[in-house]
Amino acid sequence: MTNPGILDVPEPHRHGDVQGRKAGIVIASTRAAAGIYDDETGPVIADWLTEHGFDVFPPMVVPDGEPVAGAIRALLTQRPAVVITSGGTGLSPDDRTPDVTLPFLDREIPGIMEAIRRAGAAKTPLAALSRGFAGAAGQTFIVNLPGSPKGVMDGLTVLDPVIGHLCDQLEGGHGH
């Protein structure tokens, strides 16, 4: 016996489902922004986000520093669920991405960066030098990934099993 009223209830948002959520990408590379070489990480991140069901804004390739802050600020006006940056996380004087990202974060999510550095350190000790942050700007998750394709892949591998739940939580979901 079925209850006709039950059929009128819309299907609930599946735990971990990201379909229809927007995502942005900011590539911090002064040389790629100047056309000296092609960015290799933006397409990797865009493909990963698309494979996970996000509607992805075209990657923004900008010089490191204040242009990164401007790109993040512009993306946040579009209310994306996720903003992923790549590059500018090291110790060079022009590596400023973490410094310009931090003011946007209402809450840091240190476990994400700990896991990303741990995943990278399994392959190279240089992963410990990444200064990136992960956190929430309102309902938007922002994460700073390294500028190398391998570093990006390590970060995306860490995000893979948690990204849907993370977005659910930031949107006010309470499923565990």
Features:
alpha/beta, 7 strands
Write a brief caption for the model:
The protein has 176 residues and is an alpha/beta fold. The chain has helices at 4-7, 30-33, 41-51, 66-76, 97-101, 110-121, 149-159, 163-170; strands spanning 22-28, 55-56, 60-62, 82-86, 107-108, 134-137, 140-145. Helix 6 packs across helix 7 (149-159).
Bulk shape: globular
Question: How many β-strands, per DSSP?
Answer: 7
Uncertain segments are 1-16
- Helix count equals 8
The radius of gyration over CA amounts to: 17 Å
Helix content: 25-40%
**Beta-strand residue fraction:** 15-25%
Nearest-integer average pLDDT = 89
Element pattern in H and E: HEHHEEHEHEHEEHH
What is the straight-line distance between the termini?
32 Å
Structural class: alpha/beta
Largest sheet properties: 7 strands, mixed
What does this structure look like?
The protein is of the alpha/beta class and 176 residues long. Strands 1, 2, 3, 4, 5, 6 and 7 form a seven-stranded mixed beta sheet that branches. The two termini are 32 Å apart. The relative contact order is 0.17. Strand 6 and strand 7 form a beta hairpin. Helix 3 packs parallel to helix 7 and helix 6 packs across helix 7.
